[in-house]
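Lab notebook, bench 4. We co-purified these components, and the gel suggests they stay together. Before we commit to crystallization screens, I want a quick structural picture of the whole thing.
Request: model the full complex, all chains together.
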Amino acid sequence: MVARMTLFKKNLGIVAGLLLTFLLLQIPGALADELRVAVASNFLLPIKELSREFEKNTTNKVVVISASTGKLYAQIKQGAPFDVLLAADSLRPELLEKEGIGAPGSRFTYAVGRLALWSANIKLFLKNDLQVLNQKNFRYLAIANPKTAPYGKAAEQVLRKKGFWNQLQTRLVRGENISQTFQFLVTGNADIGFIALSQLMRNQGQLKGYSWKVPSEWHDPIRQQAILLKRAKTNKVAKEFLNFIKSNRVQKIIESYGYSLER
Amino acid sequence: MDIGTLDSGPIWLTLQLASVTVIILLAIGTPMAWWLAHTRSKMRVGIEALVALPLVLPPTVLGFYLLILLGPNGWIGGPVKALTGSPLSFTFTGLVFASTLYSLPFVVQPLQSNFESIGITPMETAASLGASRWDAFFSVILPLSRRGYLTATVLGFAHTLGEFGVVLMVGGNIPGKTKVISIEIYDRVEILEYTQAHILSVGLLLFSFIILLTVYSINKKLPVHVS
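Here is the predicted assembly.
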């Protein structure tokens, strides 16, 4: 009985020790000077490279949180502990500024999205323009949901402007965001679709397909804006980070990922 | 309060999906549950574990594989495309297929434990009185299983109502075909239309609560059969 009790106590000690270790492991992260950057899914890859660049010149850590702009906005409104938002549109940053959650005057366009038409099927690209959509030999055209995704809205504008919107209604499938739209295309579930040019650039080499850059005058510019959030108003690192994003050198990198720059 | 833009399409579609799914599940779940309840085969535990998988797997795993399986190059979508000209992804039929997998344990498990508690004796008694297997099942076992079937139907139905991740991944958000309530709520939240999101969410919450409440109170009144 006594032996058993000791055994129990010993195990209890191990469990308590483990628990304590897990708890302690959480603390350093909370104490260090870390910058929390909330970023729209389409910019996740560039921001990872840019964060590494930024971390080289400073002791501060950049923590990246990625989700759709709509979700990030809702989380920020509910007090999510983020310092900077890099959105996929200008609407949410504008709203945050108006609502006093974003620091006034800190908003700027860090990238302008470019739309591309893409298909894995060369037969669909005999004519290298939007006229491919006149063909009957495809079942589904994928776009991002125009209601939730800026790239989807741009795709809708292009289709409407060129008179395809009504005729293609029964063949449209909508991805929840531009990543899912791309996923529909890559898995072959949709035959052709409008995606972000940046998605093609990042997957170059490992993707077999045919693409065509949609002229940017055919839709409203997809202005992706950044804003400093109020809780980081006096945070020097956050301001440094935004200036870093604005810098010519970084803007060049962003361009190489398939974005345009604000003129 | 602006509810002008709220349309009932997704609601009907969801009810349709849940109904069709439950009917199919009862049809295939009954022989499965019966077999699981009475077999002495070594495969039993394996099949039981397979049936329970959707309980623990994240919907993303199911959604990911269904997207590949149902697509034009998939094992299921390929032949279907050859026959009908269109793969199963982005179709109502595809959603029914996905929901059937997703809600399988919610129908099979209650039926199985129901059949186990009834045991094989009533079947044997009926057989000794000259009833055929089918006759014995329909006139003896089924009436004894009301409780199990009620639970299975309601859980299967309610679980399909609440389906989200899988539909999101294989549905393609097509109004009237694959845009169910949960997706509609997700979209509304995303575009900051919180009023409409609230209306749909509260509706779904109350509806689900009421059907669960109904099944639990009826279940309390129904007799339990233990052999």
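The mean pLDDT of chain B is 89. Worth comparing against the SEC data before the next meeting. Residues 117 and 174 of chain B are 44 Å apart (CA to CA).
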